[in-house]
Amino acid sequence: MAYTILESCTGCTLCARKCPVEAISGVRKELHHIDAAICIDCGVCGRVCAFHAILNPKGREAQRLRPEEWQKPSWSIQECVACNICVDICPTGSIGLWRNSSYPQDKDYPSDAPYLAYPETCIACAFCARDCPTGCISMQKQELTVG
Amino acid sequence: MIKGVAGMILWVDLSAGTCQVEAVPESVYEHYLAGIGLAAYYLYRRIPAIAEALGPENVLAFVPGLLTGTGAMMTGRWMVAGKSPLTGTWGDANCGGTLAPAIKSAGYDGIFFSGISAKPVYLYVDHNRAELRDAGELWGKDARETETLIQASNQGKPLQVACIGPAGEKLSLIAGIVNDQGRMAARSGLGAVMGSKRLKALAIKGSHPVMVADRESLKRLTTSFLKFAQFQPPFLNGKGVRLLGTVLGKLPLTMRQDGMLYKVLLKKWGTVSMNEFSIQTGDSPIRNWTGSNLDFDGKKAAGINPDKLLKRETGKYHCYSCPIGCGAICELSGREGDTHRPEYETVLALGGLLMNEDLDSLFEMNERLNRAGLDSISAGGVIAFAIECFERGILTSADTDGIVLKWGNSEAIMALMQKIIDREGIGDLLADGTKLAAKRIGKGSEEFAVNAGGQEPAMHDGRADPGFALHYAVEPTPGRHTVGSQLYYEMYRLWKRSRKVPKSPALFFSKNKRFKTNRYLAGMAAANSQFKMLIDATGLCLFGAFIGVDRIPVFEWLNAVTGWQKSPDEYLELGRQISSLRQAFNEKQGAPLRHKLNLRLVGMPPLTEGINKGRSVDLDAMVPLYWGLMGWNIATGQPVTADLAYVQQEGSV
């Protein structure tokens, strides 16, 4: 399963630049291609494509979303068991540990708990929410706040 | 192909400077699962007989487990395996941290290194590429500096790094491999193998998904396990744990232990929760295995009370996929910087074993050993050996560059430790463990060189639990404390899932029962070995296994992940097959199948005071019983031909 690119691709290169695993190749102003063996189905190519040129693994056109509409993770921290699975699964390295943050440490937010350290690099793939064993991550369109 | 595995391994030929991907036949997983089983399969086949451990023929394998990355919890352990230069046998070491999921999500079930590089290199692996990079600038750097430097040149998803420090570069035979700023795969001297290959580090990241056959069942199992993992009554404190140890130590009866208690302690204090408890129950050796709880009691042991270590904590540390989080990041004292909290083994090897009660020195030594990449168990063992030699006049201050070695003198201990790290003066002589040190020193010092088959045993005393002594002698990796003991059997609770294993011990039973020779106790040891090889194939943490198989659903997770419908007994048989293969590896390498233990480890002569007074362990009768129950030749310990039929077939690999 993988995303694919249609003929309507204009070769703008945006998807290739956003792809976290370098699965997309192509020359500027020419049709791009997704390597199915490399693609991880994160869908960011479809979310950024302005030319309706990306099909999702089910063969349907992927919906473009303006970046401010993207849903990003938020943790119900009381339910989090600090297993770090979300930290590891994130393909862009956007999730960090609270103890490594520059925010003041807070007794209500365990030092070993995760948080969205780099909201700007989050591609809204939702892998973290999908794999969270306690279901404590919800994906929300949000003015990002921590905690 | 079954689910849960990548189906590929990466071979790195350091002599040629090449990386090649190899497909693993499905039948290999069916016979040996992944993790340590996969490593055993390829190492048995690819390392020629009587190979030089520090030569190009040795193969070093880094493997995550079958369950790593699937959503099963506490399965983030990685293992490194190769022929041990310390013992000449099968060598492996197990570590938590962050490397295991990185290998899996880079698309591999293992990374195997052969040959020797002409110049220092490190392996870089990401989602799409694997390449050797120059490590000239990293060579000579300590483990934390190395990781930080590699990370600094990386963008996007962080790299997970495993590396050697200066100890591995200097081929210290007690060197380990360090991950995540101070977690260490420390045993078996495999850091020296990495050093001999001029391989400074592995730096890995990737995002390949790990497939699961039945994700819903897996999630359901995980949710039910989390109830046990999160159960945490608040009533215990450090003194209470010590008191519990004192009571259990003094009673003529012993109580079958439940790993849930240990889980609760681990979550609060980490492994150091057992510091005083273990001294009180006789589990922890004192003064190079000649002392007892009476020598390191009261005020002395209070220096390492778990509550004192807790005060230094600045944050908890969880390995990948672990809800327990037995690690912590702690402040150093008297200087800037932090350190992973010293583990139980480190605190006791550099504490009670050396009669050292100076907690500041323990934190400092822990950090220096982590940075150098040196095994703290063996470091403690070899320092204890040196102090005893000094005490008996075999070594003098002329040999030690003026350091006056004395039990409990933390300054002298630290100075000697630094010499061992630097291989300077007397340190050069000691840096390869007690067995070689005694050989170099002579003068009858072998008597004080406490090792099992060349490796310093961990801080668990067979005179308190003879299961440890048995496993020190019969595991393919000598001196191994993380496979079995009678206590471990009680905590694994295998009888809850299998009718073939020995039944549950009574809730209370006489301590003398532990010292009998019978099929029941040998059966416990055999079941331990089989189960531990199974969990080392899955990547499960030993401390997870301690929670008990009726609570941590390792068999059920395996079925949900792979799509198999195997029974626990079938999985234990796979564990036995892995054990047989490691045993066959030793046979092929001309290594002993029963390891020689320093006589102190079996209580010859017995201690004359303390909780283990008068106790000795008779292994001569137990070993054949154990071998028989493992399905091996009862006289020689050789695995039977049928066990090796698959691995010895001519085939594609």
Describe the structure in your own words:
The complex is a heterodimer of chains A (about 150) and B (about 650). With about 150 residues, chain A is α+β, with helices and mostly antiparallel strands. Chain A folds into 2 domains: about 1-65, Alpha-Beta Plaits; about 65-140, Alpha-Beta Plaits (2-Layer Sandwich). In chain A, about 15% of the residues lie in helices and about 15% in strands. Chain A is built from 4 helices and 8 strands. Chain A has a two-stranded antiparallel ribbon with strand order 1-4. The radius of gyration of chain A is 17 Å and the shape is elongated. Chain B is α+β, with helices and mostly antiparallel strands and about 650 residues long. Chain B folds into 3 domains: about 10-205, Aldehyde Ferredoxin Oxidoreductase,  A, domain 1 (4-Layer Sandwich), CATH 3.60.9; about 220-450, Orthogonal Bundle (Aldehyde Ferredoxin Oxidoreductase Protein, subunit A, domain 2); about 465-490 and about 500-540 and about 570-645, Aldehyde Ferredoxin Oxidoreductase Protein, subunit A, domain 3 (Orthogonal Bundle). Chain B is about 40% helix and about 10% strand. Chain B contains 25 helices and 17 strands. In chain B, the strands form 4 sheets. A 6-stranded mixed β-sheet of chain B has the order 2-1-6-3-4-5. In chain B, strands 8-7-12-9-10-11 form a 6-stranded mixed β-sheet. A 3-stranded antiparallel β-sheet of chain B has the order 14-15-16, with helices on one face. In chain B, helix 7 (about 215-230) runs antiparallel to helix 23 (about 555-560) and helix 21 (about 520-540) packs across helix 24 (about 570-590). The chains are: A alpha+beta (about 150), B alpha+beta (about 650). The interface between A and B is medium-sized, with 27 and 33 residues.
